[in-house]
Amino acid sequence: MDKQKVAIEDFAKIKKLGSLTLSPSGKKAAFTVTEGSLEDNGYHTDIWVYDEAHTPALYRLTAGEDGKAPVFLDEDTLLFPGDRKKRHTGNAAEKETVYNRIPLNGGEAEPFLVLPFIASGLTPVSDGVYLVSGMRDLSAPDLSGLDEAEKAKKLKELEEEKDYEVFDELPFWINGRGVTNKKRQGLYLINTATGENTLLSEGKFFDLHGFTLDENHTKVAYWGNEFESLNTQKARLFVYSLADGSRGEVPLENRYRVGNAQFIEGKLVFTGTTGEKYGSSENPAFYLCADDLSFTLLAAPDPSFGGVGSDIAGGGDSTSGGDGFYYVETKGYHSAYSKLTLDGKIETVADDINIISNARGKAPLVFFIGMEKDSPQELYVKKDGRVEKVSAFNEEYMDTHEVAHTEHFTFIDSDGVEIDGWVLYPGDFDPEKTYPAIFDVHGGPQSAYGEGFFHEMQYWAGLGYIVFFCNPRGSSGKGGGFADIYGDNYGVRDYNDLMEFTDEVLKRVSQIDVKRVAMTGGSYGGFMANWIIGHTDRFAAVASQRSISNYISKCLTTDIGYYHNLSAIQADPWSSPEKMWAHSPLAYADKAKTPTLFIQSDEDYRCWMGDAVQMLQALLMHGVPARMCLFHGENHELSRSGKPRHRVRRLKEITSWFDEWLHRCE
Prior knowledge:
Elements: E1 4-5, E2 16-22, E3 28-37, E4 42-51, E5 58-60, E6 71-74, E7 77-81, E8 97-103, E9 110-115, E10 119-126, E11 129-137, H1 148-160, E12 173-174, E13 178-179, E14 183-191, E15 196-199, E16 206-213, E17 219-227, E18 233-241, E19 247-250, E20 257-264, E21 267-273, E22 285-289, E23 295-299, E24 304-305, E25 325-331, E26 334-340, E27 346-350, E28 355-362, E29 365-371, E30 377-383, E31 386-389, H2 395-400, E32 401-402, E33 406-412, E34 418-424, E35 435-441, H3 455-462, E36 466-471, H4 479-483, H5 493-508, E37 512-522, H6 524-533, E38 541-545, H7 551-554, H8 561-569, H9 577-582, E39 596-601, H10 609-621, E40 626-631, H11 638-641, H12 644-663
Parallel strand pairs: 1-32, 35-36, 35-37, 37-38, 38-39, 39-40
Antiparallel strand pairs: 2-3, 3-4, 4-5, 6-7, 7-8, 8-9, 10-11, 11-14, 12-13, 14-15, 16-17, 17-18, 18-19, 20-21, 21-22, 22-23, 24-25, 25-26, 26-27, 28-29, 29-30, 30-31, 33-34, 34-36
């Protein structure tokens, strides 16, 4: 049977797994499976269960329920959020979250718990008692105590106010969440027996980032930022006793930022950074808290938390706790599930598959979602040291489609640093022919490519392009020193690596037509696209996605600009505007000659559209062929989770742009 080429819409056919969670015994796993629909222009998600004692062991629990974020109520029951009976009024002042209950042995999901706020992270504590993160809108009026007529009048007024927003703090918007001004996450203790919803994270200005429950369910640690004023935030970490209601605070000294925390044998361990060495991109260290909550350094392995990149992968947290601090980290271009113990030692729990995006459990039974080489996600079980793939969601697709295989190699850059790179060849590659090529640069810059399945690259390879990509300095996976491109090195070390890598690929792969090479990248990759066209004309065409062009404006418009971008450039618009401008691609736009396409979303608050607009206008003013495709209602995640039709149009725009300009070079 002839295999099909990877098509532009195939990202919707590939199943995406995520939100892996385990039953109290650790023997059963629940997770989500998501599939796109071009017809509905959306995504459908259902909950699946793996239970070795069940026949079949892997089975779908929900169908059409839009089942997300499952959590085990007990060994045989799951809860998941979803407004199945359309209880929401649609008014922001009356939003609520409905959690449904469904037995593992089948049956209909029924409403179980209704919370009067937008909730996430529901965690059972004991019978009828739960912890949950809930959204508070500090600008919303208090409707309690009003009679029905007064309440209706106030709700009408709120409806009429939907056409404007008030900003008076930082950050006032966050990518993917929209406007967050005066909106705070809080930690709530829910008691269904008494009907009480108690806010544990007291303080009007505290914004919850995360929480963790100890193994005996006697205390909870929670952390976040407190708005000391409208524009200044202070990291705080608390431990609350569920037994007696007492609360203690870890003395972070306005110096440490908390990333995560877990209890190990009753002791609190948290990951923290100071930013004193590598700014806001510093890798965390592990700190151990004593009984009095003072803390000492436990280990500093310089880990890069999280998995490697893909445009068709789901994810989720990977904590287990109890006998160790569990986490997923990227090592080079491979992700592993690791465990830190109280003696400061780190062991690898699972690294048998090329990419692990979400893992749970402890020896002898570990579940994880991973990608084998050149393959989409599946569920794996590691038991007694042996790994077994227990799902086949994407096997039919792989059996019927021609998938290009990644060829890995390393080279030493001009500073003596080893760089990992890859080449994807078309399935019908003929060494006697010449081919156009696409250079794809990842975002971050602290992220990493690996050897899983990347739909856009597979699509281009299917069209007859050779695709190449690498992890230059600035990438994660090799420690803080490798990732350090900040300050004077920004746009220097990384750019040199990327250009030297391109030279290396052209030397190794003589079949590439050097006149027909295109380049693309998003986010930091978009910064590099804009930087490249101002520093070289070696590429026949460039597609700059969700890009950065002007750090003076970028640091004053986006959700992370006022701290992360200032840290990255190590400058600000008042004391050192010349330095910020020198590291801004817009400063070199008058040198550009390369035909450039801009892909942008109007709700991208990470790399705001103003930067792309500035770069577009600069190129057009200087006579450079340029075009922008602006997607309404999309954010920074367009290429990974945008509306399916928008994702098709995005990839069609980029491919058509390359086809047109590279054809002219033949």
